[in-house]
Amino acid sequence: MDDFLAARSQMALSLGFHIIFSCIGMVMPFFMAVSHYKWLKTNDEVYKNLTKAWSKGVAIFFATGAVSGTMLSFELGLLWPKFMEHAGPIFGMPFSLEGTAFFIEAIALGFFLYGWNKLNKWFHWFTGMVVGVSGLASGILVVAANAWMNSPAGFDFVNGQYLNVDPIQAMFNKAWFSQALHMCLAAFTATGFAVAGVHALMILRNQNKEFHLKAFKIAAVFACIGALLQPLSGDISAKDVAKRQPAKLAAMEALYKTEKPASLLIGGIVNEKDKTVKGAIKIPRALSFLAHGDFEAEVKGLDKIPEDEHPPVAITHYAFQIMVGIGTLLALISLIYFVNLIRKKPLVEKRWLLKLFVLAIPLGYLALEAGWVVTEVGRQPWIIYGVMRTKDAVTPMPGIAYSFYIFSAIYFSLSIVVTFLLYRQIKMVPVLYNDKSIVKTN
Amino acid sequence: MEYVVITFLCLGILLYFLLGGADFGAGIIELFTSANNRSKTRKTMYQAIGPVWEANHMWLIIAIVILFVGFPRIYTTMSVYLHIPLLIMLIGIIARGTAFVFRHYDAIKDDMHWLYNRIFRYSSFITPLFLGIIAGSLISGHIDTNAKDFSSAYIYSWLNWFSVSVGLFTVALCGFLAAIYLIGETTEAYDKRRFIKKAEYMNIAAVVFGAMVFIAAQLDNIPLTDWVFKNPVGLSAIVLASLSLILLWYLLIKGKTQVLRILAGFQVTMILLAISYAHFPNFIRLKNGNAISLFEAIGPEKTIYSLGLALLLGSVLILPFLGYLFYKFQKKEE
Ligand code: HDD
Ligand code: HEM
Ligand code: HEM
User: Fold this and answer.
1) pLDDT for B67
2) Residue of minimum CA distance from atom 30 in ligand 3
3) Any ligand 3 atom below 6 A from CB of A185
4) ipTM of the complex
5) Which residues of chain A from 150 to 169 reach within 8 Å of chain B, CB to CB?
6) pTM to 2 decimals?
């Protein structure tokens, strides 16, 4: 494996791994806060047990998220020193604020996990909320850093020099809002569906029904609101991309030739050599509308972009199809769920709906990873869009392939252990939380 | 503002060394505890560092973020030439952090614990070892930006007697800090005595490895003795550290835990000060005789200004909260 490819793969792997844990870290505290709140209000022990059961899962995920994040903050330099040398001072603002947010999050988590029976109960609840809010804030901040790579701002690039650096302007670049909004919704959707699905599975198996039903409801409501808003926010993102990164949009849609009006391609097999797409469903004028809000508008194809600035088309296109496909499916499930909820039909009778949720366990995360592939691969060959190429940023040290293998092995084993631990936590639910007596912590 | 940023950088490194160090040390202590006392040590340790380890760990992240935002050339030079030790240290951090949490939260206690414990102990040793190696390499002058071949650019930059001695010295200091910390965390007289013994051994180890650092510096032509002894601040720091050592042994025998902690922290701070003061603000010494100084590598003005502001604002938000965390979980349960 050549070093450049290895560096890119290692970066993608680490980010793809970290994002799962960070989303859980961002979202679960809110689920816990709801359940915790219900316990404080109703004194129903089930909610207390649920909060505790969830918080143990979160502690496992949080630690994994924290170490993989630490890894990332070194990896940016280990793999892309030339990039960091110039970009660090420019896009560093969100990272330094993020440091603050993480810190608060870590402290609040310490209080929350170890504060049972030690703190005033509302203060305890409040620390849980702080975990969630600061987690969400740090997520938004990192995404603002990533958005800067897509839409550089806050400096003047003159003769290879980065002058007049303004980190605040860099943080509020053109892409940050659409990306941060879409990302936050994605975190709620993905985590919500995963959690709801696991509890749906337990309901189907008739285990601790009361416990799992309550858990399912909390997670499902968050997930479904997220999933219904996601296509709207995705539309904002797409219009944004059309304006600022036409090459990415063209790759997402596998649009080799500029069209006016442009039709939307769904699916299809991309042939990068002949620059053709076979077997796709064509919807006339739809792309013009989606990209520019006008059925007659022209959409720039890859033919208008210099060959050496083309992103990999096939990967970007497939990833986009996966994301949108799943997004549509999840939005449908959510619609059914809400209709069901409004009609006050008891959920347990609708086994097929529960089965749909079980099916959706991995889907949200799949869409999320696919979405990041669209954003990141679609930005290639640039590491800072239009300013610095990825291949100019890579470390001069040879042998990165080995470090890639090592990290693949580490992430692989960590995933296995985390899955295994979670499986054990869930298996222990009947033992730990069956009776309504006070459950011992620690 | 640049002074604010530099102060926070130094503070971050120092606190990571003290708090994170005690945290690593706890694993080292466990490594060197006989098998029948291990589970007790583990329990004491969990109560002591469980609530705070995540926060301790943050100092490293703060330091690294300050480096890459404020001093990009230092960050990238480190990343390129010390790639390998950084990588090993990271693997250590990953293994340690996850093993620590996994072993506590595994709902079923069985053979898996054998594995978690193993990983936790060994990575607790390896991580500070390489942390020390990295620190040593930065000032050793072995980093060669003109190197032509792989080994002199990426291996000998850190694999030399001086760096390795600093690494071992670091391990001993961490163990020492942890033992002192743990003395105050246990109520049983037997355990107290055990941790006191450990503190004594670790202290002896630190003195031995400390001597080794000086010898290696001599052999490597690193003017460490000049830095420490020919500089009033360095000299007084080392004298204070030595004096406090005597007091420390006295207190150890008496078992006065609160003062001990402060004193141990003070001692380590003095040692760091002695080593780093003389060549401040130079952060990295290069093979060709030049050095990269903090003031020279500093980022653009606006960046430093907003970074400093963010740090000040952050500490107003964080410090009271953090203090309360330590306070709240200091009080032992009966
Ligand atoms: C649960 C996950 C999920 C779901 C269901 C969707 N997305 Fe998404 N999408 C993401 C998760 C995601 C993401 C992983 O969060 C990305 C990557 C970067 C970002 O900001 O969000 C993303 C990026 C992203 C981008 C690129 C933004 C950029 O590069 O700046 C576009 C155009 C869309 N999405 C559009 C959509 C549309 C039209 C959807 C319709 C259903 C959709 N997404 C569903
Ligand atoms: C967590 C969500 C993210 C995921 C899943 C992700 C995914 C990826 C992928 C797949 C690549 C490889 C692209 C290629 O080489 O073709 C990549 C590259 C990269 N990403 Fe991201 N990314 C994420 C967020 C971020 C953020 C927040 C940053 C930084 C602030 C970032 C910085 C980079 C860098 C520096 C590279 C390497 C250079 C490049 O290939 O362009 N990414 N990422
Ligand atoms: C879009 C991408 C990202 C998102 C949404 C995100 C979000 C988060 C969140 C919410 C956490 C808290 C830990 C948890 O709750 O599990 C976290 C941890 C962390 N992340 Fe990320 N992150 C992203 C990418 C990155 C990148 C690119 C870096 C490095 C430059 C990074 C550095 C860190 C660090 C250092 C931590 C550990 C902090 C701690 O100990 O609490 N993250 N991330």
Assistant:
1) 86
2) A73
3) no
4) 0.81
5) 165-168
6) 0.86
